[in-house]
Amino acid sequence: MIHPFSFTYRGRPAYYLFESENGSLLEIERSVFLYVKNSETADGSAGGLSAAEAAEFGAADADEIAGIEADLAELRERGIVGIPEERTEIKRHGLIKSMCLNVCHDCNLRCAYCFASHGDYGDKSDDKLDVKGVGKNADNGGGYGRKSDDKRRENDCGYGGKSDKYMSLDAAKAAVDFLIRMSGGRRNLEIDFFGGEPLMNLGVVKETVKYAEERCAKYGKNINFTMTTNGLLLPAAVDFLNEKMENVVISIDGRPSVHDRLRKTAGGAGSFGAVIKNAKEFRAARGDKKYYIRGTYTRENLDFGEDILFLNDCGFDQISVEPVVLPQDDPLSLSEADADKIAAEYERFASEYLDRRRTDKWFNFFHFMIDLEKSPCAYKRLNGCGAGDEYVAVTPSGEIFPCHQFVGKPEFSLGSVFGGELNSDIREKFQKSNVYTKENCGRCFAKYFCGGGCAANSVACENDINKVNGLYCRIVRKRAELSLAVLAEERKEKLKTVAGNAGA
Q: In 3D, which of 18, 39, 75, 40 has the Cα closest to residue 483?
């Protein structure tokens, strides 16, 4: 399937042709771009010609059209474009290799867009942070709302709570044993510590890592650990995280005004000052180990490119900023009416991104990272993250869900790490959901980049894991085009450098 697209950098428009079935990326003349865009051979997302483009294309003479057709025919003959889809058989083994461990269903932030309902996943029991006295001093060492006579379970950050919100070590061990048991012959496993805020249960995290390492060594398996944190409690965990975590993701939305508007403490104060200080110190201590600064953009900051650049200005070189996923009646949600602004902002940001990557402000933006020569395995290209199949989430009580974004939805409960059979009906639905079964994926050039998209997003927006949301598909396609354009521009720059050195 071929897809034509264009990108203008430094005032110079460039036109490209991408073949999704083999990853071929070609720079083409504008006349070829218009021909393919107007052709039935283009994928359904190309959009057809605008009125101005149609008039330009209509003025082309017969010889020019014949030349274009001859060139495309040669490319097809050589197997570069026009590759028919060959469906790969997806072999199901039923094994699980990665787990999101929700060690805490409590949080010291009250983010306005939180899919986890401020960290408790809809559990509105009385075991809440006591926010009395929590005000402007958001960097008070992590002791948000701690009463001096609190008899909470011991852990390094002074938190703990009832067993239904804070995972016990017994539950964590049962989850580790479940993962090892369900991994079969798989040797490489992963656990992501998540919440709520996982550092509020740091003691259990530490003991879980120790237990998992011992058990995996016994069974001849390797295990990596990652953590996603809001950053407020980082100072108490820097050494441990740097020693044990393969990757650490810190949530910062960008500019102080953007972050503080939506990511407030339990006491209602802005959290930016404390988080950015902690994150910078952690980045300095992290060295060359993996980390990411992850933000979320909403309808209130459709100029999110400025937030990405701000985070880079703060010294971070690994950044990811994601569109919010919320019901359409939420004032922060994104809608089709925002699509053109979002696309234009990605375009604007891409040029600045290219500029910065040529300077001492080089950085990676997660959604522009692409390698056409070392693409993901067939399973990931067709199934995405593997939620409900290779990947599951476990709550503090030991209940299992397809992923962390399904937690709290009883209709998606798969079972328990404490025993019993997994719900095969639910699991089978996720196992069978892929780019071949999802509506509108078939003729999309970007389907192998997203693997059919996020199942939780599909349920949130369309109430069906096999339906895709139009807006988020447009975002994925735009990011895919720009990631390809960035790759092409940097290849051209590299070739110029090589040629210049040769000439010297």
A: 18
Q: How far apart are CA 200 and CA 372, in angstroms?
A: 40
Q: Would you say residue 483 has pLDDT above 80?
A: yes
Residue range 262-290, pLDDT digits in tens: 999 989 999 999 999 999 999 999 999 99
Return the domain boundaries, the chain.
2-86, 98-297, 378-468
191 contact partners, CB below 8 Å, separation of at least 6 = 98, 99, 100, 101, 176, 179, 208, 212, 223, 224, 225, 226
- Supply the mean pLDDT for the chain: 86
Integer angstrom CA distances of residue 290 from 103, 118, 235, 282, 286? 22, 27, 18, 12, 8
* C-beta of residue 371 within 8 angstroms of C-beta of residue 483: no
Cα of 438 vs its chain's centroid, Å: 20
Length of the chain: 504
Q: Give the mean model confidence (pLDDT) for residues 110-126.
A: 72
pLDDT in tens, 471-481: 998 999 999 99
Structure tokens at 160: 């703990």
Architecture of domain 98-297: Alpha-Beta Barrel (3.20)
3-state secondary structure string across 115-150: CCCCCCCCCCCCCCCCCCCCCCCCCCCCCCCCCCCC
Which among 330, 198, 310 is positioned nearest to 253, based on CA atoms? 310
Measured distance CA(44)–CA(443) in Å, rounded: 6
Helices (H), 185-338: 202-218, 238-244, 256-262, 272-286, 304-313
Residues 6+ apart with CB under 8 A from 299: 324, 331, 332, 333, 334, 335, 338
Q: List the one residue out of 69, 44, 56, 235 whose CA is nearest residue 156.
A: 235
Q: Residue 361 is encoded by which pair of tokens?
A: 């402000």
Task: Look at residue 134 and tell me whether its pLDDT is greater than 80.
Answer: no
Asked if 215 and 176 touch (Cβ cutoff 8 Å), the reply is: yes
Is residue 254 exposed (0-12), middle (13-18) or buried (19+ Cβ within 10 Å)? buried
